Each structure stands twice: as structure tokens, then as C-alpha cells.
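Figure-free illustration: sequence to structure, shown twice.
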Amino acid sequence: MLNKMKPKLDSMKELHEKLLKEINGQSDLDIESISSQKFAEKTKQLHDLSQITDRYSEVEALIRDLQSLQQMLDDPVTAQDNDLREMTLEEIKTTTENVLDMEKQLMLSMLPTDSVDEANVLLEIRAGTGGDEAGLFAADVLRMYERFAEKQRWKWEEISKNYDSLGAIKDATISIAGSNVFGQLKYESGVHRVQRVPATETQGRIHTSTITVAIMPQPTEVQVQIQDSDVRVDVFRASGSGGQKVNTTDSAIRLTHLPTGIVIAIQDERSNQKNRAKAFTILRAKLYEREREKLALERRDSRRKQVGSGTRSEKIRTYNFPQNRVTDHRINKTLHELEGVLNGEALPEFIQALRVEEQTDMLMAMNEEDA
């Protein structure tokens, strides 16, 4: 693959040297005359290119070492010295492994990065088929993500949650903020299925229930601007949540986005303004996600598959309690440590495996494009 990528890598190396001279004032460009924004863009471009060109230089150096070792192996003097020949063969083996490893790192560094990976997210969980059991499993999965967020030192803020007296969740929306939140959680979108014996089952039969998980990056107000004329705002009295608090003032908010028909209703806060702010946060994220899904569909024809683009209708994972098993169907990976997954400790094993699969997919697509 490296031979196919060599022209592109050489051009990147030339651009890197050009930018380095410009920033150091060693070119015809008057660096002091350009705006601070343009200078910052050039500096970032140089940094990004360095991640690639530095590895490329290391690969080239290793290949030169390998060629020198091969010449040494072909030398008559080496052929007559068994110890020297064995030592040379061992060095060739080690250097070859280093070349392959460094080539892989180089290819990965060339993959396009998604700036939205650094975004905070809105986590949305909804009970699906299975009645109360689906709602109870939704509560289990919500706790799984909360524990995982704690381990990552992310900020967890409840936006809205509807549940019943048993603790079964009908739906919940959570804001999660921190480093690389979307980059790690984006693989969790889709249908999660549970197989277990419900506490209310008297004959020990295994029931199957489902919930849906949506992971939406939180855009800024600049990224998604909502026109006042596109939104109808209705104010009403909160009806309570599963027999919980009931407001006696008209503090609940319902937003209807007229162009798309998206409806957001929030009544968790006693303050009208707080409910309004939360509703607009969710609406902005949903509109942003619609645009991202539209772009993903347009690109999908040129890709083998989309590991990290789980839709709400795609069954992605099964949690089987009797067998202590969790299976991710996208990569056929199974862990026999259900408790470890649900307490957030083993979840990174799935996330890392999905990331590797996606990177492999992208490498293959990049290779096909260059072929």
C-alpha cells in the first residue's frame, strides 16, 4: 500500500517543508502581513502534516536500514560467517516487523479526522418492545453509560427523564460533556436487545426486550441557527412524571419545528426559561444530526460499510443474562462478562474493537480510491 501512497506522501512532504519555511520567515511570504486567523490555520496545517511526514521519514529510514541489511546478507563475507549471518537474519526480521508496524501507523495517521469527535453529546434512550422489562433494561443501560462517564471524568447532566414507580424508564435525555465524548460514544447508537427472565415471570421463561440509544453531537448556536419563525412555542402545565412532581404553573415547554415536524417537550424544571433552554438544546442537536445523517447517506455508496453510523433501527448488541454474554453484532465480538459491561468497565473493549474495525474499513476504502 505504501508504494501506491508514495506520490501523495511526497507531495505532503513538500507542502510540509513549504509551510515550515513560511512560518519561520524563510520564504517570499511576509508572515507578519497575514491575519492571526490565517497564521493559526497554517500552524494547524503544519502540525497535522507533521503527524504524517514524521512517520513517513521513519518508514523511509527503516526501509534504508532493511536494504543495507539485505546487502550485508548477500555479501560473501557474511555467507561464510554463520554467527554473522544469523545475527543479520535476526535484524532483518526485527526491522521488517518495525517497517510493517510503522507503515500501519502512517496509514492510520493519513485517515481523515472528524472534528465532531471532540463534541459533547446528547444521549437519548427510549424503551422499545417488551413493556416494563424494556423500561427496566433502559434504566440498566442508562446506569452503564453514567458509570462509564464517571470513569472518563465526563460531566453528566440530566436534561429530561420519564419513568414509572418501578424505576422503568420510558425515555431519558442526558447531556455529557468532556474530552472526545462523541468520538467514543458514537458507536453506541442503535437497538440494544436484552434476553433475561423478568422478576415478574413465574415460570422462568426468558423474555426478549429492546431499547433504542441515540448519540447526538451537541452543536454550537453558530453551527445550527434556528429562525424564530420556524418554531412554534407552546407553554402548558406539567402533568407530572410517573406520579412524581406536578407543577402548578405553566412552566412546561413544547417546541414544534415547522420545516421538519420535530417536536420537543420538556417539563422537568419548574422554571419556564430552563425548560425552554433545554428544549432548544435538544432541537439543535436533532437538526444537526439530521444533516449529518443526510451527508452519511450520500457518502455511503463509496464505502464498504459504516461501522460507526448505527441508526436507531439497527440491532447492534445483545445482552444475554442466562449466558452471561454480551455480543456486538456489527463485529461479531462476544464478551462473557455481562456485569463488567453493565458497570462500564468492559465497555471500552467494544469501543476499541469498533474503532479498529472502522479504521480498517477506511484504510481499505482509501486503498480502493487510490487503486
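We now fold a second protein in the same way, so the two outputs can be compared directly.
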Amino acid sequence: MTLILAVVLGVLLVVLHRLFVAPRRGGEHFVASDYGLPPREQLDSRRPGPPPPAHRTEERQTVANAAWEGDWRSAERYVRAAGEDWDERWDRLELLQQIAREDDAWLDAWRAAEPGNCDAATLHASLMVHRAWEIRGSGYAHEVDASDMNRFRAMLPAAIEEARRAALLDPANPGPWVVMVTAARGAQYRHAQFEPLWEGLVARAPHHYEGHWQALQYWCAKWFGSDRRMMRFARQAVRKAPPGSPLAGIYLHALNELAERSAVGAPAVTPMARSVLKQVAASFDRVAPDDERLPALRHLLAHHMLRSMMYAPALEQFRLIGPWCGAEPWRRGGDPVTAFEKARGTAAKLSRTRPAPQPPVHRMGR
């Protein structure tokens, strides 16, 4: 009996070592190139992924410069060129919103010249929402000054009404509905008020990425949902993500939300959770490599795979990520290079992947 107990205790100690000690030491004596990874000296913490192509950067800068010089027509053409690629169209509106936050005189001129333009009206409504959130800040409600909270809550109904008017200008355009879904939680919309907005959005763009991200925030426990409701919504996003869309990444944001509020620091590891992470990885494999949302999502995927003890799949994500480590999971401690190196070292050491054999070094005999 004593022998059996000793064996069981020995096995338990080995398991505990692998789960708690080995991951902390994963980066020690880790040679990245042995596992098909770029060496530490090549890691770049400035960005989550490679910079966009030069022509794309130049186009954006040209639009910004034209707007600040008072030419709204370049902005109008820039948005219209996205056609009915609603995700791309929204990304372009978000760029214009950043431009308008510095100087919105060009937007006022655009709205005056084209009062029937849905994009201009949507952009104005979205800018109203963001300005309200700037007043409120990112803290919890009890941390916000009462006067700021009152201003915040007064501004959002006006933004929603502006978005409703924009929706009438182009009934097929989901942009105004994204604005309404975004503003709904701050406006304290109950489920019966929120659901028609959500239905209006998905009727026009069933896989809209930003719309899903905003709805996820509504359904989380700190707003008007619960952990169960949020995770169900996130799993639905994975199931309905079409080929080429990064929509499955919504599930990773849900896991982040759980981890931030969990007393134990991480959601429970279950077979279902691991299965969903595998589905997310398979979905990402069908997204265009130049999709600018993809690198940051791969970092989250690698992070959550690692926390789920899916070491080999996490290692594959680190290979796809390459040298870029300027992403959320690694920045939290203030030293993204060290955190990233430690994480991929853990994935490599515990993945049971054999390091690539090193070629023999032949030395001259004396």
C-alpha cells in the first residue's frame, strides 16, 4: 500500500511540475530557431504584425491631408470605394472618425453639401458616441464623476437619434445600426430595446465584425448580460464565421473578458473550450494574410491556447506570428519581448516537439 501511495505521489508531483513549474521556466535555455521561430534579437515590440503595404498607408495619409485642408470629397470617395464590403467600409469610416477628432470642419462641410449622404450622417453619429465616451472615460460607473456621467448619458440618446436618421438615408447600409448597437449599453438600453437594433444590424450585415464586438460588450456581465450569455454569443460567432472573415476572433475577446474579471485569473479548461479554440484557428487559416485584424487575433489565440495547455497548437500560432510581439497579451507586464519569449518558450518546451537537429561542427585537430 505504501509503495502504491509513493508511486501515485510521484506521478502527481510530475504533473504539478509540468503544469506550474515548467511553464514558468519555458523560456530558459530556449533556442527559438530550433523550433522554426525567429530568434529573440529579431523580435519587434512596436507592432502586433507587419506594417500595412506602403500604398495603403499613402492612401490613408492622402485622405487625411485632404480632409484637414477642407476637401471632404476625397473622404467621400474613399468610403464609397469600399462598396458593399461592409467591414471594409466601417474600417474606412473609423479612419475618418480619427481624422475628424482632430478637426471636423471638413465633416460639417460634407454634411452641409450632401445632407442625404448616409456615410456622412453615420460618421457624425459615431463621432458623437465617441465624444460621449471620452467624457465618461473607461472606468467603472462608480469611478466616474457624477457630472461627467450625466453629460455622457445625455449625449447618447442624441447620437442614437442621429444614427436613426442616417439609417433612413440608405436602408441597406448597416453603418448606422453599428452606431446604435455601440451606443445602446451606455444609453442603458434593456434587452427589449437592444434586440431590435441587433436584428436590424444582422439583417443588413450578418457577419459584421465591429458590430459583433460591440454586441459582445453589451452581453457581458458588467453591462446587461452574463458570462453565460456572453460566451453563448461568442460561440455563435465562431460557428457562423464565413470563410475569409476574422469573426471567430470574437470568442477570444470573450475569453479576455472572463479572465479580466475572474478571481482565479483564467476560465476553466474544458474539452469544449479547446474544441472552440481549434475551430477559431481553422477559421483564421482562411482569412487573407494581409487582413490587418489577423495578427492581433493570432496573439490572443496563442495566449489562450497556452492557458488551455494546447502547447503544440500554440507553437504553430507563434510560428505564424513571426517576430512581432507588440500585442495586448504581452504588453500587460510592461516588457512585451520578455513575456512573448517566455510564452513561446513554454509552448515549444511543452509541445513535445523535438528541436531541429543542429548540424555537426567540424573542428581542425591540433
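Summary for the second example: The longest helix spans residues 146-169.
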